[in-house]
Write a structure and sequence with these properties.
Layout lengths: L12 H9 L18 H20 L9 H28 L3 H22 L2 H11 L9 H16 L6 H31 L1 E4 L10 H14 L14 E4 L2 H10 L3 H12 L10 H17 L5 H6 L7 H32 L8 H16 L3 H4 L5 H16 L1 E6 L9 E7 L4 E10 L10 E6 L2 E2 L4 E2 L2 E8 L12 H18 L21 H8 L4 H7 L11 H10 L4 H18 L11 H9 L18 H4 L9 H20 L5 H16 L7 H9 L6 H6 L5
Parallel strand pairs: 5-9
Antiparallel strand pairs: 1-2, 3-4, 4-5, 6-9, 7-8
Helix pairs in contact: 2-3, 2-4, 3-4, 4-7, 5-6, 7-11, 9-10, 9-14, 13-14, 13-21, 17-18, 18-24, 21-22, 24-25, 25-26
GO molecular function, one term: metal ion binding
Pfam family, one: Peptidase_M3
Cofactor: Zn(2+)
Length: 710
Amino acid sequence: MLLLHIPTPPPPAPLIEHVITVDNPLLNQSYEFAYDTILAPHFIPAYTSICANLQTSLSSFTFSNEMSADAFIRWIEKMEDPLERIEHAFSLFSANLNGPEIRAISEEFSSLGIESAKLLYYNSAVIQYLTHFKSDEIFPTLSPLEQRIIEKRYHRLFLEGAFLDPAEKQIFTQAEQDLSFLMMQFGNNINDYMGSNCITVYDKDKTKGLPESYLARGFNTYCKAHPDESSEASLDEGPWQFPISCSSYAAILQNSESRDLREEMFLKMYTMCAAGPLSNQEILTSILSDRKTMAQLLGFDTYTAMSLSTKIAHSHEDISTLFEPLKVKAKKASENELNALQNFANSLGFSGELKPWDVGFYAEKMAASLFDINNEDLKPYFSFDHVKATLFDFTQKLFNVCIEQQTKAAWHEDVTFYTVKDQNGTMLASFYIDPFERTGIKRPGAWMDEQKSRWHDGDVQHLPVTYLSTNFSPPTENMPSLLSLQDVITIFHEFGHTLQHLLTKQEYKSISGLNSIEWDGVEIASQFMENWVYFKPLLRRLSRHYETGARLSNEKIDAIINKTKFMQGSSLLRQIILGDLDLELHGDYIYADDNTPEDLYFSMLSQKAFPPEPIEKNLLYRFTHVFSGGYASGYYSYLFAKIMSSDIFAAFEEELSLPRNSKNLVELSTKYKETFLEMGGSKSPEEVFKLFRKRAPSTEAIIRHLGLND
């Protein structure tokens, strides 16, 4: 039941007061929230109450030389915990159930979040303590863990504007509040566009090539949207209604034999939020402006410089130098790939130059010709439930844990809940999975987010709770949710993030799980898990036809693995261009009427093998990672981390290539678990990598995995 989306009459005043002060589930500080009882009206009163409690606690907090670094860290983590828990809960509802009730309070909630952070980080005693522990006299006497936490917290204090003068603080805080609202609006506009746009097909000829499962879904969607006309419709004759979503985009552009339909879907996606009442154009430029204002107030020339002050990479130049050899290989490979694709399309009777809405279609046909496999033909072998069960079984064996599903109500009926225990049955953590698409109210893409961290507050041991959310096609009455291979990679990727949060052993919340990991290292564990999808024995186990139970043949599995190198140059080049664009927009870029953000992107697209279509520059207006997520000046992180994750997986490849020795593989898995999963943010990813590999990262493995060897 979607509690946030069923309009109800306003309750009488006494009942509102009762909900706020007595029965508000967000004021329950037990192990975790009862998500099925949370309503939008609970958030603001609960947050206000928590902020008031924080203010009371801070009013009596004074500096003393007697307090140790350990005591201070545990104190500040206790102060932050109620705030962080409600912020994570609001983030969960905003991402997964983003209806009008949540949106109505988003700006106020965001402002409260900024105010609460200022309460804590502008507190004079907090500033005194962090300055004291960071001093040349005290800092060397701290333990390595205390040093890392104090270093990170002191820098956060600086980035929060705590050392600005009052007038500068006011400007900084206003820019921060504006930025928070703009980022929410950017994402909301995309959700609204997807929820209010669709493609309705009345001509059966235009559906040629589309998968049966997709047509069934389109027919059901039409009937639900037009109940008065459903009696005259039929699955065979239509009509069919297709949402504007990532899954629809892939289904149509890869499979539709109708070039008109492919172009229509492409244009729908690339005009998304580019103009009209849901335009993100002005929002994007305002986001860039606010970020630049904040960075310059703090003494940085650019937002990119400010962002990189918290990361492994130190400058845009360092990143470009690292990526340049990969870019050269990617560009050369991309030219060869797209020339071959053009020739292949011509051999099938295509005339003229391939357009962006043709590339996916002919690439799919070319892959079928080269490898005798088709993505849609493979989907029946990868039902969501079976893939999930196999992923869990593999994880249990690799990391010696036990994952069990439990009965527990959540925020939506599709959500399932699991506990994680060690080999002795000791509880370690728990997590939720929210797997299916809800167009218009659930943000696109896939992600994980924490709800609680592992930490010890001095009295109580807290265990981690997280959730994983994807946008897979939901099951129908006669068919389970079927995944593409890219979907399988997606759930492995997000589960890699989840494991890093769940299996941490750190007792300070500040460095537990993903906390304090430099942003360009957070994708290491997730991308490490991706590699296992194409490990032949596991891929065979992942495949099972949902009707017959048959596994994919060894020949098909070999073909799938060989296909992983297909068109990788083009994919890598696109990733490098987007990462460079992000750094440049937040770097030395200066807005002008003849040098807009989309102009900059369009000029960068000229590096592609095919001349770009002008409309492609509109991708910026749905670039959620950068403009409504946490990847500003950090989109490069995916490739940066992939270099390390590929090198880590190469260690397993080396072990698996030797005569079978399960003891060595167990030792290697344990070593990975004890470093990348259990250490959390206690050390930088560079240090953790060297502990695991005994050397610095190399690009050899990623070049080999992508098939870009000369």
